[in-house]
Amino acid sequence: MTLRFHESLGRLVAEVEAAGIPLDDATVFLRDGEGRLMVARESLPDAQALAASLSKTLGAYASMRPVIDGRIAAALVKDQAASEIPVVLPGRPAEGPRIIRMVDRRFVGADWMVPPEPVPQGGPPRLVFSSLKGGVGRSTALAVLAADLARHGLKALAIDLDLEAPGIGFMLLDASEDPAQDRRPNYGVLDYLVENGLGGVADEELFDFVGVSPFTDGSVDVVPVVGRVTDQHPETMLAKLSRAHVEDAGSRGPISFTNQVREMVDRFAARAEYDVILIDARAGLAESSAPALLALGAEILFFGADQPQTFHSYRYLFAHLLHCFGTGPSGYRDWRGHLSFVQAKAPSSAQQRIDFRDRLHGLCAEFLYDKESLAADGSVQVADFNFGVADAGRGVPHDALFVAFHPDYMAFDSPSDGTPLDPDVYRGPFGDFLNRTWDLLGLSRDGRT
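RESULT FIELD:
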């Protein structure tokens, strides 16, 4: 039977183990950008025989040089990109997984291999609005929270990282031919990523990327995806987009898209004394979604409707993260405690919302929560990060926030009609969401932390 991608790594590990090679820190497995595999260890008893065996067993999944030894192997073993992952051997699931060191080279998707950044102590809290499908009101919820923060005298910065489908700038910043009424900055995130990779963006130029959205009792600073200049020259939008994800050429080597986004957010966040940083992430599992979810040291809100496709998408993401980071020392374990789910377009029925929460508990138990175990004396070892289905409150991921379905928000995409950002309107559908989000951020309505 033809070997397939999901079987190939397990087959390689089984062959290496059968050859008597230890699966220790001196052995590293590699998968190249096309999916072909190899194993590296400085000293091997019969590298040629193992290479011939692997080429036969792996077929198309064998690298042209499936076994690497000597000085090249010694360097590969020290590769900083190596991470510990579990691998179940084919036909032997009862034996449990082997823990191997793996380097996964990718043409795209490398940003999903960056371990999650822990939430730092100090500085304004950061809150990422994410969804794995569009059309669930993620950006609208950000706009409503920003308006609510401003009306209570807090200073918020909103950054739009949804490069392919910008939203926040259009929601919060008025566009006008009258310069006195035009709230758009000249530039946005897309321009920053392009220009910073070429000649750089000086600190004194950052103001040209920030617009101001006024409210009755305050304002919100907004860094949109695009500004006035791109709107005036729309033919440049896709040309900029194609270059925004390119690695920058730094003096110490290439700078990844993730590191560019991290540096950019840090710079804009340091411009003023902000109380909170709100970040709108790209929907889905594309490369550009990864930095907002993994690299910003933020609280994460995952928006999703109660639909099968929502849970399937969550499984793809969390299975990847558990596979890559769940067994090794990384920020993953801390990161889990800083994510919350939000039921979008939630029904009025409390029981239906409980059903959604219960389904989330099953997902979290499979991929996020630690498993209880039995000690040698038969006693139960309590897991560090584990919650029962009835547990609730801050820091319990499956205890979902919710935004109630409301027809006034079905087509909200323009500042020309400010009704959806009127507190008398948004308190109804967003009341629970706002109360719990303020608590999540450690903020109070009187403006004190």
